[in-house]
Write a structure and sequence with these properties.
Layout: H1 2-7, E1 11-16, E2 22-27, E3 30-32, E4 35-39, H2 51-58, E5 61-68, E6 77-88, H3 92-104, H4 106-110, E7 117-129
Length: about 130
């Protein structure tokens, strides 16, 4: 599961707002030991007050999902990680996250993001593969 998660280029981050309503967004991420890290980058957004950040601050329980689809269904798989998330506006944890992300994505080497980082401490790993 770790190998598949590490190799994936995009994931989905699920958070819940204070009323329990789910919020799902695609993210780029890196795996650093048992932390999944992502950052708010410079891609255009409707607002600087992102719902995912507000949700994590109010309720740190999140889920990250990566999956692989092909028309050959014998190659399908998914990995779901549940964990506790924290928002880091600055500091060594954010810097460590940026380093890991720059190691995985050339776009972050060319232009370092300025937004907050979300660090997710993986607590439960679940996965499935059509090939067993």
């Amino acid at each position: 599961m770790r190998r598949r998660l590490q190799g994936a280029r995009v994931a989905r981050l699920a958070t819940a707002d204070p009323t329990g309503r789910p919020h799902l967004v695609p993210i780029v991420f890196a795996l650093v030991e048992d932390l999944i890290v992502t950052v708010v980058d410079e891609k255009p957004k409707r607002t600087k007050r992102l719902q995912r950040l507000e949700n994590v601050r109010a309720n740190p329980l999140v889920t990250v999902l990566v999956d692989h689809y092909e028309e050959d269904w014998s190659r399908l798989w998914w990995v779901r990680v549940r964990g506790d998330a924290r928002v880091h506006e600055e500091g060594p944890e954010r810097e460590r996250a940026l380093e890991a992300l720059a190691g995985k994505y050339a776009q972050y080497r060319d232009a370092a993001p300025h937004g907050p980082a979300i660090l997710i401490e993986a607590q439960e790993w679940l996965g499935w593969s059509a090939s067993g």
